[in-house]
Amino acid sequence: MSIHPVLAEVTQRLVERSRASRAAYLAKIDAARGKGAKRHHLSCGNLAHGFAACGETDKHALRHGHAANIAIVTAYNDMLSAHQPYERYPALIRGIARERGATAQVAGGVPAMCDGVTQGRPGMDLSLFSRDLIAMATAVSLSHDMYEGAVYLGICDKIVPGMLIGALSFGHLASAFIPSGPMPSGIPNEEKSKVRQAFAAGKATRAELLEAEARSYHGAGTCTFYGTANSNQMLMEIMGVHVPGASFEPPDTPLRDALTATAVERVLATDWIGGHYLPLGHIIDERAILNGVVGLHATGGSTNHLLHLVAMARAAGIDLRWDDFDALSAVVPLLARVYPNGYADVNHFHDAGGMAFLIDQLLGAGLLHGDVNTLMGPGLDAYRKVPALDDGVLVWKPVATQSGNRGVLRSIDEPFRHDGGLRMLKGNVGRGVIKVSSVPEDRMVIDAPAIVFDDQDDVKAAFDRGELDRDFVAVVRFQGPRARGMPELHKLTPTLSLLQDRGHRVALLTDGRMSGASGRVPAAIHVTPEAEAGGPIACIRTGDRVRLDATAGTLEVLVDADEWARRVPDDIDLSAHHTGMGRELFAMFRQSAVAADLGAGVF
Which residues bind [4Fe-4S] cluster (predicted)? Predict the structure, then answer.
């Protein structure tokens, strides 16, 4: 089937816009390929250092052999539930490589922080910048130039985007991203959400809240709601750098190990020593990036990828813009409802047909580029199949023709919505993003007075004082990348949700983030230019009428135009947010960060 005309138009514009930068990127990685095994171009001293700690078998292979050496870049730590299963992966990967006459070495580790632990804490100010730090650490890991291929062990919010940005600097390497899978389902998400709101209202104790949270986040594996971590997994699969079906297979199962083995095998099959060279930089092209955008819309994925996908695309010489997201949002239907956009979690999504069903439906409607390069070779057809074990052997089964649970996953003929879950907002405040996939229809337009805050804690304090039992738009500013690293503002969610449930018409307007867990309350986020850069959001005053219209895509402060033009942006002292918990070490990141619509990064 031919691709949808809007997808074709967006693709053509993106290709033309990126022509020079993409050509420069491809020339760079093609020049880096070289000939033969990389390590044999090293000096004897360099090479001896490179294999000094290896066992005799690997040492002999690295010294005399010509098979590939695979770099393992790992985000393992045992504080992150999603990354704890990676503890045993290096040994598993080394064994798989040896069985095939190759070698593998842990090239390095990257930092991996958990936003779920740092929410509302000073450490959250480091979260977004950790993405670019991870990219740098990935580059350092690979800088020894000992490798013909690489595998990347990462799952969570900034880790996969950071690893991919770093990996694309080494885009001449055959590469695979290897997930570890979600934890088992815990208590129903709606039950957890109710306890959170009850606690915000003073009707639940801390012990009751902790019990609910502990029953939700209760084991090894990725958190099961559809936030940024699981949006990352969807993206890596639909963009072709996962093995098909790998995203949401549970940890530590025989099938999970078989999928990991296949990832290693595919890297060995596509390195430059063999005859089927297919490096990462030739997989991640304009078509793959737009397939990622389509997947994000079709699943109601994380708003963080309005930052991350832009930054990842730039790393491959591709000039992705928010306008591309907006154009595709109008034609890509919402096919999945996973919490916070529905009652189910990613395990339910996977059981209902998961990625294979989703990709099959989108391909059938011409809403994906099916002719892309992938880890499995040319084309997306391999991603329409479902992995399974047959007497211990990995086999690929045809995708189901119907969803296993229409409350979670639907066909292209009966979507939950006929448009995507992400929209752009424009107006005299600047540009922003809103996720509408779970916003009630009667809250798509909010017209209410502004209440201006410079910290999310001030919102909760005002609520506790009884000052927020009314219609209003909470303007939480000086949260952007240059101000304080663009932290997530999830402490606002229970309070604003509770006020909305009381019947008040409330919304959020911020130059900060709300990520993949933003839900039912209308939230204009990522507003740019940010307050610290003198953006119009710094000119809003308490009492100004603000109109957020998600249907029309507008964001306006309803103030006389002459008065608005005369206003001078507020300037506040942020020094208290720039020290402690390591924040003083990131001053150069804050000073160098680009705007949100350019990816909010430092490169």
Answer: 156, 223
Place of tokens 């942020």: 574
pLDDT band at 518 (very low <50, low <70, confident <90, very high): low
Residues 477 and 549 in one domain: yes
- Model pLDDT for residues 129-156, shown as the tens digit of each residue: 999 999 999 999 999 999 999 999 999 9
- The answer on pLDDT for 269 being more than 60 is yes
Considering the domain architecture, whether residues 237 and 169 belong to the same structural domain is answered as yes
Report the binding-site residues for [4Fe-4S] cluster. 156, 223
Domain interval for residue 210 = 185-218
Q: Closest Cα to residue 125, out of 562, 575, 504, 555?
A: 575
Is residue 414 in a domain? no
- Check whether residue 21 and residue 141 sit in a common domain: yes
Question: Quick one: 356 and 392 in the same domain?
Answer: yes
Do residue 91 and residue 109 come from a single domain? yes
Instruction: Read off φ and ψ for residue 508, nearest 5 degrees.
Output: -120, 140
Binding site members:
156, 223
Q: Are 493 and 474 spatial neighbours (Cβ–Cβ below 8 Å)?
A: no
Residue 41 to residue 281: CA distance in whole angstroms: 22
Residue 297 and residue 420 in contact, taking contact as beta carbons nearer than 8 Å: yes
DSSP 349-405: HHHTTHHHHHHHHHHHTT-S-TT-EETTEESSGGGGEEEEEETTEEEEEEPPSS-S-
Instruction: Using CB atoms within 10 Å of the CB of residue 565, give its burial: 0 to 12 exposed, 13 to 18 middle, 19+ buried.
Output: exposed
pLDDT tens string 304-328: 999 999 999 999 999 999 999 999 9
Residue tagged 């902790």 (tokens): 210
d(CA 231, CA 516): 8
Are 197 and 287 contained in the same domain?
no
Tell me if the pTM is above 0.85.
yes
> Which of these three, 398, 414, 443, is where a domain ends?
398
Rounded CA separation 260/283 (Å): 19
Looking at the fold, whether 280 and 238 belong to one and the same domain comes out as: yes
Q: Which two tokens stand for residue 249?
A: 């297979």
pLDDT score at 1: 66
In a domain, 487, yes or no: yes
Nearest to 497 by CA among 523, 521, 468: 521
Angle CA 76–79–80, to nearest 5: 65
**Distance of alpha carbon 480 from alpha carbon 511, whole angstroms:** 5
Overall domain count for the chain: 3
